[in-house]
Amino acid sequence: MNFIKKDDPKIIRAWTFYDWANSVFPLVITSAIFPNFYDYVTTHDHDIFIGTTVNFLGFNIENSTIYSFVYAFALSIVVLIAPILSGIADYLGNKKRFLQFFCYLGSLSCMCLFFFNRENLGLSFIPFITATIGFWGSLVYYNSYLPEIASTENQDKVSARGFALGYFGSSLLLIVCLVGIMVFKYEEKMVDGVMVTTGFFKVKYSFLLTGLWWVGFAQLTFRRLPNKSHDEHNVPGKGLFSKGFSELRNVFAEIKKMPQLKRFLSGYFFYNMGVQTVMVVAVLFARNEIAWIDEKAKTTSLIISILIIQFVGIAGSFLFSKLSTIIGNIKSLMVAILIWIFICGFTYLAVRTPVQFYVVAFLVGLVMGGIQALSRSTYSKYLPETEDHTSFFSFYDVVEKLGMILGTVSFGVISQIMGGMRPSVLSLIVFFILGFLLLIPLAKSKRSFNVN
Q1: Percent helix, strand, coil in the chain (nearest 5)?
Q2: Which of 193, 156, 136, 433 is nearest to 317 (CA)?
Q3: Can you tell me the distance from the alpha carbon of 359 to that of 344, in angstroms, rounded to the nearest whole number?
Q4: Under 8 Å CB-to-CB from 333, ≥6 apart: which residues?
Q5: Does residue 184 sit in helix, strand or coil?
Q6: What's the rounded Cα separation, in Å, for the pair 144 and 163?
Q7: Contact, 187 vs 199, CB < 8 A?
Q8: What is the pLDDT of residues 336-350, one digit of tens each?
Q9: 427 and 261 in contact (C-beta within 8 Å)?
């Protein structure tokens, strides 16, 4: 059995650098550039606005609803395959190989988004689905390294460092993409006697850069991160899937005996449902619910607001890591949830202008990085002494994805029924309140993780 030396600076640096590599996907693809690109190509024909309803698989559906449902479908696949594959990875002791597989799947799929078009919307969404599977699938194995490379007292700090690097690195690539878009200015040409703008579609080169950035910088992680083997006799063979199921059954049996871990996962399910839904639909909400001057101002302002979230998120990650050393992990998470509740209420009641949206962007950045980093390290601290970290983190991942699926689908359904996205914000408040209530008993326990 090979053991990983904890708190090794080189290993920790390699681990955190995968956040730098893969965070370009949630920023460029699911938050900043691709949603704007998707919204434009599904609502315009030769630069002429044709409405927000799109024919998808024979049905006329709102473009924002399609986006939510397709994303939920991709997450459903992750929920189905990740637990089994994590059990196999724990049995074989080669989770680094699984991490690499999902990384390569996601990065290559990002590059394939270059061919996205309105005419073949069903086929165009396939690389978006596989890129989503690659990103979230890799995180199962990536997150499971945290309790193996960092001691308990350092896990909050290491987790926050990873998210901070992710925010900073992805912001740099976004700026590079924006500079490229500005340098290659919009072109105008005659199409069927009409002057149309064609430069918008040069945005697709950003998808190529995203994939190259992800797979390129991930090599720094793969070079240093160890591939811990449990047993040299654990080699692939017959019954491999049954071994994966066996690993999961053992982990599930342990989780059932840990009431605090179960309660934390329950609370995480609800409050993270709100967090992840905001990340997915924020840009589409802003494009449809905020009073922008024109299309150019809309796109520019949205990118600025996303950069605000990213850079404030760096400070937020370390702020909540520091706060956890003062009042404990659980209470720090509860503070973050209260801020999220305020954000949702303020957005529903008052956010209608660009300036108001910038205020929300600042607040979101403050708590987004903090709540994500602290949730990861808090879960890690609840785990027992075990060699099956990947299987344990697969349950964390399943809880996260089920919440995201329910959140995005409910948001899309409410938007479709109510004819707008604003009423859906109220559902997010309910999610955060439920998560807060479930954490209250944990805040009173001895394991609230105040590690002064």
Answers
A1: 80, 5, 20
A2: 156
A3: 12
A4: 271, 371, 374, 375, 378, 439
A5: coil
A6: 15
A7: yes
A8: 999 999 998 988 888
A9: no
- pLDDT tens-place string over residues 315-331: 998 999 899 999 999 99
Q: What is the pLDDT of residues 253-271, one digit of tens each?
A: 888 888 999 999 999 999 9
Question: Mapped to the 3 state alphabet, what secondary structure does 51-114 carry?
Answer: CCEEEECCEEEEHHHHHHHHHHHHHHHHHHHHHHHHHHHHHHCCHHHHHHHHHHHHHHHHHHHH
CB 37 within 8 A of CB 181: no
**Can you give the length of the chain in residues?**
452
Structure tokens at 114: 């270059």
What tokens does 387 get? 């060699």
pLDDT tens sequence across 122-152: 888 999 999 999 998 898 899 889 988 999 8
Q: Any idea which residue has 């990650």 for tokens?
A: 317
User: How many CB atoms within 10 Å of residue 326?
Assistant: 11
DSSP code per residue over 241-293: HHHHHHHHHHHHHHHHT-HHHHHHHHHHHHHHHHHHHHHHHHHHHHHHHS--S
Q: Which of 304, 372, 284 is nearest to 69 (CA)?
A: 284
